């Protein structure tokens, strides 16, 4: 890789992989959490993620390149951590905290990825047909993160915090 354009395509392919993997992960977490509000949030974001995949495909098309996915070690590491904790935790409410934290960490990684892609696209002077879909995906990731933040302080989570925090 010797130029900024190839780096952009590489990072775009990694984000394509991330979004594809997250459809299944969000579906699993929506099914497995015992918190109804969190379950609905994960299901809603899973549906948004499918649209985000389509937007990335639009970006590849605007670049006149076939859509390709490249593994992303950051996501793979987050997934490995979540699965290890799932295997070790038997308390449903504590597992809900794992899902909440995993969701927040993933959203932050995704926001950072889209910020980086947008910055490179601007440096390359790529058109709105490239930048707009990336910005839309960023906005949705930011919104999903804010929803998770709100959930972390919600009443139904306060009982868990109270139960798990030593007095």
Automatic annotation (TrEMBL):
<dbReference type="InterPro" id="IPR009078">
    <property type="entry name" value="Ferritin-like_SF"/>
</dbReference>
<dbReference type="InterPro" id="IPR047114">
    <property type="entry name" value="YciF"/>
</dbReference>
<dbReference type="InterPro" id="IPR010287">
    <property type="entry name" value="DUF892_YciF-like"/>
</dbReference>
<protein>
    <recommendedName>
        <fullName>DUF892 family protein</fullName>
    </recommendedName>
</protein>
<dbReference type="InterPro" id="IPR012347">
    <property type="entry name" value="Ferritin-like"/>
</dbReference>
<dbReference type="Pfam" id="PF05974">
    <property type="entry name" value="DUF892"/>
</dbReference>
């Amino acid at each position: 890789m010797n130029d900024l354009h190839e780096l952009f395509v590489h990072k775009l392919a990694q984000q394509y992989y991330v979004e594809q993997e997250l459809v299944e992960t969000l579906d699993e977490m929506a099914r497995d959490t015992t918190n109804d509000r969190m379950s609905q949030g994960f299901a809603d974001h899973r549906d948004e993620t499918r649209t985000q995949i389509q937007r990335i495909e639009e970006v590849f098309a605007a670049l006149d390149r076939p859509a390709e996915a490249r593994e992303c070690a950051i996501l793979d590491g987050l997934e490995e951590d979540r699965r290890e904790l799932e295997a070790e935790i038997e308390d449903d409410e504590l597992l809900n905290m794992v899902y909440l934290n995993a969701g927040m960490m993933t959203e932050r990684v995704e926001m950072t990825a889209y910020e980086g892609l947008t910055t490179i696209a601007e440096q390359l002077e790529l058109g709105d047909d490239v930048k707009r879909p990336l910005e839309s995906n960023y906005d949705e990731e930011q919104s999903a993160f804010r929803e998770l933040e709100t959930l972390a302080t919600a009443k139904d989570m306060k009982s868990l915090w109270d139960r798990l925090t030593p007095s």
